[in-house]
Amino acid sequence: MKYLYSLIASTLLFSFRPTGDIYSIAVKNLDGNNFDLNQYKGKKMLFVVLPLSAEDTTITVSQLAQLQYKYQGSLVVVGVPSIEAGFKTPDADTLSTLYKDAHILLTEGMNVKKGGQQAVLFQWLTSKDQNHHFDLDVQGVGSKFFVDEGGDLYAVMGPDFSLANPVVEKILTKPQRKNP
Questions:
Q1: I need a surface site. Which of 46, 79, 101, 152 has the fewest CB within 10 A?
Q2: pTM (2 decimals)?
Q3: Domain coordinates in residue numbering, the chain
Protein backbone atom coordinates (compact mmCIF):
# COMPACT_ATOMS: atom_id res chain seq x y z
CA MET A 1 0.00 0.00 0.00
CA LYS A 2 2.88 2.35 0.83
CA TYR A 3 4.34 1.68 -2.63
CA LEU A 4 1.00 2.52 -4.26
CA TYR A 5 0.89 5.86 -2.42
CA SER A 6 4.46 6.51 -3.47
CA LEU A 7 3.64 5.82 -7.09
CA ILE A 8 0.59 8.08 -7.00
CA ALA A 9 2.60 10.83 -5.29
CA SER A 10 5.39 10.66 -7.85
CA THR A 11 2.90 10.74 -10.73
CA LEU A 12 1.34 13.88 -9.29
CA LEU A 13 4.74 15.43 -8.72
CA PHE A 14 5.80 14.87 -12.31
CA SER A 15 2.65 16.46 -13.68
CA PHE A 16 3.38 19.96 -12.34
CA ARG A 17 5.63 22.60 -13.77
CA PRO A 18 6.82 24.90 -11.03
CA THR A 19 8.87 27.98 -11.76
CA GLY A 20 11.37 29.86 -9.68
CA ASP A 21 15.03 30.66 -9.49
CA ILE A 22 16.95 28.56 -7.02
CA TYR A 23 20.18 29.50 -8.79
CA SER A 24 20.18 33.02 -7.35
CA ILE A 25 20.28 31.78 -3.74
CA ALA A 26 23.60 32.28 -1.97
CA VAL A 27 24.82 29.10 -0.29
CA LYS A 28 27.95 28.54 1.79
CA ASN A 29 29.80 25.26 2.12
CA LEU A 30 30.72 23.66 5.42
CA ASP A 31 33.93 25.72 5.51
CA GLY A 32 31.96 28.98 5.18
CA ASN A 33 32.97 29.65 1.57
CA ASN A 34 30.35 30.62 -1.01
CA PHE A 35 29.43 28.20 -3.76
CA ASP A 36 27.25 29.11 -6.67
CA LEU A 37 24.24 26.88 -7.40
CA ASN A 38 24.24 28.40 -10.89
CA GLN A 39 27.15 26.11 -11.81
CA TYR A 40 24.75 23.15 -11.53
CA LYS A 41 22.28 24.31 -14.19
CA GLY A 42 21.67 21.37 -16.47
CA LYS A 43 21.99 18.83 -13.64
CA LYS A 44 19.46 17.51 -11.19
CA MET A 45 20.08 18.51 -7.59
CA LEU A 46 19.05 16.61 -4.49
CA PHE A 47 19.01 18.57 -1.23
CA VAL A 48 19.08 16.28 1.82
CA VAL A 49 18.79 17.21 5.49
CA LEU A 50 21.69 15.16 6.82
CA PRO A 51 22.00 12.95 9.87
CA LEU A 52 24.72 14.30 12.12
CA SER A 53 26.17 10.94 13.12
CA ALA A 54 26.74 7.48 11.72
CA GLU A 55 24.37 6.09 14.39
CA ASP A 56 21.43 7.85 12.73
CA THR A 57 20.44 5.52 9.90
CA THR A 58 17.68 7.68 8.39
CA ILE A 59 20.03 8.14 5.43
CA THR A 60 23.44 6.53 5.46
CA VAL A 61 26.72 7.64 3.96
CA SER A 62 26.66 4.45 1.90
CA GLN A 63 23.24 5.26 0.40
CA LEU A 64 24.36 8.77 -0.53
CA ALA A 65 27.62 7.48 -2.01
CA GLN A 66 25.80 4.85 -4.09
CA LEU A 67 23.35 7.43 -5.39
CA GLN A 68 26.11 9.91 -6.20
CA TYR A 69 28.11 7.21 -8.00
CA LYS A 70 25.13 5.86 -9.96
CA TYR A 71 24.12 9.30 -11.23
CA GLN A 72 27.53 10.94 -11.48
CA GLY A 73 27.53 13.58 -14.14
CA SER A 74 23.77 14.16 -13.97
CA LEU A 75 23.10 14.64 -10.24
CA VAL A 76 24.54 16.86 -7.55
CA VAL A 77 23.77 15.80 -3.98
CA VAL A 78 23.82 18.67 -1.51
CA GLY A 79 23.85 17.68 2.14
CA VAL A 80 22.52 20.18 4.66
CA PRO A 81 23.22 19.85 8.38
CA SER A 82 20.24 21.09 10.37
CA ILE A 83 20.70 23.45 13.29
CA GLU A 84 17.35 22.23 14.66
CA ALA A 85 18.78 18.68 14.67
CA GLY A 86 21.68 19.85 16.83
CA PHE A 87 24.37 20.90 14.34
CA LYS A 88 26.90 23.38 15.71
CA THR A 89 29.79 24.95 13.79
CA PRO A 90 32.45 23.09 15.86
CA ASP A 91 30.91 19.83 14.49
CA ALA A 92 31.95 20.74 10.93
CA ASP A 93 35.17 18.69 10.90
CA THR A 94 33.42 15.60 12.26
CA LEU A 95 30.63 15.95 9.70
CA SER A 96 33.10 16.50 6.88
CA THR A 97 34.97 13.34 7.86
CA LEU A 98 31.72 11.35 8.16
CA TYR A 99 30.54 12.25 4.63
CA LYS A 100 33.95 12.32 2.91
CA ASP A 101 33.36 9.00 1.13
CA ALA A 102 29.91 10.04 -0.11
CA HIS A 103 31.44 12.75 -2.37
CA ILE A 104 28.55 15.14 -1.80
CA LEU A 105 28.54 18.89 -1.32
CA LEU A 106 28.10 19.90 2.32
CA THR A 107 26.57 23.25 3.20
CA GLU A 108 27.00 25.21 6.37
CA GLY A 109 24.51 24.44 9.13
CA MET A 110 21.07 25.88 8.38
CA ASN A 111 17.76 26.42 10.09
CA VAL A 112 15.58 24.26 7.89
CA LYS A 113 12.19 24.54 9.61
CA LYS A 114 9.74 27.29 8.75
CA GLY A 115 9.97 30.34 10.95
CA GLY A 116 11.79 33.61 11.36
CA GLN A 117 15.27 32.05 11.23
CA GLN A 118 14.72 29.66 8.32
CA ALA A 119 17.58 29.73 5.81
CA VAL A 120 16.83 31.34 2.44
CA LEU A 121 17.45 28.03 0.62
CA PHE A 122 14.80 26.30 2.71
CA GLN A 123 12.40 29.21 2.35
CA TRP A 124 12.57 28.51 -1.38
CA LEU A 125 12.31 24.72 -0.98
CA THR A 126 9.34 24.85 1.42
CA SER A 127 7.31 27.84 0.24
CA LYS A 128 4.89 27.70 -2.66
CA ASP A 129 5.26 31.48 -2.97
CA GLN A 130 8.83 30.88 -4.10
CA ASN A 131 8.99 27.42 -5.68
CA HIS A 132 5.46 27.71 -7.13
CA HIS A 133 4.47 24.19 -6.21
CA PHE A 134 5.07 22.90 -2.68
CA ASP A 135 4.10 24.52 0.60
CA LEU A 136 5.29 22.32 3.42
CA ASP A 137 7.68 22.15 6.32
CA VAL A 138 10.77 20.02 6.67
CA GLN A 139 9.80 16.80 8.42
CA GLY A 140 13.26 16.32 9.92
CA VAL A 141 16.56 14.65 9.21
CA GLY A 142 16.31 12.67 5.99
CA SER A 143 13.95 15.08 4.20
CA LYS A 144 14.73 15.20 0.47
CA PHE A 145 14.09 17.89 -2.15
CA PHE A 146 14.62 17.18 -5.86
CA VAL A 147 15.33 20.03 -8.29
CA ASP A 148 15.44 19.33 -12.02
CA GLU A 149 17.96 20.47 -14.64
CA GLY A 150 16.09 23.74 -15.18
CA GLY A 151 15.91 24.68 -11.50
CA ASP A 152 12.33 23.54 -10.82
CA LEU A 153 11.47 21.76 -7.58
CA TYR A 154 9.66 18.64 -8.76
CA ALA A 155 9.64 16.14 -5.90
CA VAL A 156 9.79 16.16 -2.12
CA MET A 157 10.16 13.14 0.16
CA GLY A 158 10.09 12.81 3.90
CA PRO A 159 12.58 11.02 6.13
CA ASP A 160 10.69 7.71 6.05
CA PHE A 161 11.19 7.43 2.29
CA SER A 162 14.34 5.44 1.51
CA LEU A 163 16.75 6.41 -1.26
CA ALA A 164 16.62 2.72 -2.24
CA ASN A 165 12.89 2.97 -3.04
CA PRO A 166 12.20 2.38 -6.76
CA VAL A 167 10.31 5.68 -6.90
CA VAL A 168 13.62 7.51 -6.38
CA GLU A 169 14.88 5.87 -9.58
CA LYS A 170 11.81 7.19 -11.43
CA ILE A 171 12.36 10.66 -10.01
CA LEU A 172 16.04 10.75 -10.95
CA THR A 173 15.51 9.38 -14.45
CA LYS A 174 12.60 11.70 -15.25
CA PRO A 175 13.35 13.26 -18.62
CA GLN A 176 14.16 16.94 -18.61
CA ARG A 177 11.13 19.08 -19.31
CA LYS A 178 11.17 20.80 -22.66
CA ASN A 179 10.72 24.57 -22.57
CA PRO A 180 7.39 25.57 -24.14
A1: 101
A2: 0.86
A3: 2-172
pLDDT, tens digit, for every residue of 67-120? 999 999 999 999 999 999 999 999 999 999 999 999 999 999 999 999 999 999
117 by Cβ neighbours in 10 Å (0-12 / 13-18 / 19+) ranks as exposed
Task: List, for residues 29-39, the tens digit of each pLDDT value.
Answer: 999 999 999 99
Indicate the burial class of 43 (C-beta count within 10 angstroms; 0-12, 13-18, 19 or more): middle
User: In whole angstroms, what is the distance from residue 9 CA to residue 25 CA?
Assistant: 27
Distance CA 164, CA 22 (A): 26
For the sheet with 105-106, list strands across it.
105-106, 75-81, 44-50, 144-147, 153-157
Q: How far is CA 40 from the centre of its chain?
A: 13
| Superfamily of domain 2-172, CATH level 4 | Glutaredoxin (3.40.30.10)
Distance of CA 74 to the CA centre of its chain: 15
Contact yes or no for 46/78 (Cβ under 8 A): yes
3-state secondary structure of 127: coil
Residue 138 CA to residue 144 CA, distance in Å, equals 9
